[in-house]
Write a structure and sequence with these properties.
Number of strands: 9
Order of helices and strands: EHEHEHEHEHEHHEEEHHHH
CATH superfamily of the largest domain: Vaccinia Virus protein VP39
CATH class of the largest domain: Alpha Beta
Helix content: 25-40%
Strand content: 15-25%
Structural class: alpha/beta
Bound molecules: S-adenosylmethionine
Shape: elongated
CATH architecture of the largest domain: 3-Layer(aba) Sandwich
Number of domains: 2
Largest sheet: 7 strands, mixed
Length: 262
């Protein structure tokens, strides 16, 4: 049998630790009439366990060389789509499918973690929960709370839609080939009551600008906004223009955006 040549450029570190796979599927409750999207099934290590839910399963894999490992999974409820996940139009792909809740469960290709998350957030698809293997460093950033050094714009975007939990850390030796970094599994659960910004585009821009220069304070990063109004809102949260964006909670950002965009 020919040896599979893993492509580092595609983030091909395959999960080989059964205990980790079991912990991943145990972290989510999927019913038979739900749909799971898996990004990057690779040789099917996680796919095999996702099949245990007997739900609809749609997997996106960029590398056709793994077709021979995945063909056996295809059935009336399971489809493997050989496409770059970043290039698919999710809203179009899912609009004719019938399912109850949508889950995204994946051991992500790390080189495109942020674009994948941004794509999901920017699409209209309604995802109930995501369980994702990411680089541990990224997991810390995504699950960070205000005041932590890891708290950034992406943390705020995600926390607008989802509760983010870092479930457990995964040692690099759980993968083949062994990557340079440790990993962690995170769970993103759609918030039940999203406190909406009146103008989401304005809100997202404000957050991006507030974090534009990591080391600068709010006065500097937001100098093109009405600083008097900002100061007034910040006071309610015991903050000032001298503080940095990493101290500003989601609620405060929404309050700022709603006040400034009036
Ligand atoms: N799910 C498998 C596992 O747990 O062993 C493989 C995970 S591996 C970390 C990431 C997978 O994503 C690889 O199979 C890789 O070929 C695939 N991949 C990389 N870029 C992709 C893209 N843009 N769209 C879809 N799949 C991609």
């Amino acid at each position: 049998m020919s040896e599979f040549k893993h492509k580092h450029s595609l983030g091909q570190n395959f999960l080989k630790d059964r205990k980790v796979l079991i912990k991943i599927i145990d972290s989510v409750d999927v019913a038979e009439n739900d749909l799971i999207i898996e990004i990057g099934p690779g040789q099917g290590a996680l796919t095999k366990y996702l099949k245990l839910f007997h739900a609809h399963l749609r997997c996106y894999e960029i590398d056709e060389r793994v077709r021979k490992y995945l063909d056996g999974f295809v059935d009336a409820k399971t489809e493997i789509v050989y496409k770059d996940f970043l290039s698919v139009n999710l809203d179009e792909e899912l609009k004719n499918l019938t399912y109850n809740n949508l889950y995204i469960i994946a051991n992500l290709p790390y080189y495109i973690t942020t674009p994948i998350l941004e794509k999901i957030i920017n699409s209209k698809v309604d995802v109930l929960a995501m369980v994702l293997m990411v680089q541990n460093e990224v997991a810390l950033r995504l699950a960070a709370k205000p005041g932590c050094k890891d708290y950034g714009a992406l943390t705020v975007y995600l926390s607008y839609f989802y509760d983010v939990d870092r479930l457990f850390v995964v040692n690099k030796t759980s993968f083949d080939p062994v990557p340079k970094v440790d990993s962690a599994v995170i769970k993103l659960t759609k918030k039940k009551d999203i406190k909406l910004a009146n103008n989401e585009e304005y809100f997202f821009n404000l957050v991006r600008n507030a974090f534009a220069m990591k080391r600068k304070n709010l006065r500097n990063n937001l100098k093109n906004y009405n600083l008097d109004k900002i100061e007034e809102v910040l006071k309610k949260y015991n903050l000032s223009l001298q503080d940095r964006a990493e101290s500003v909670s989601l609620e405060c950002f929404i309050d700022l955006a709603n006040t400034l965009s009036k």
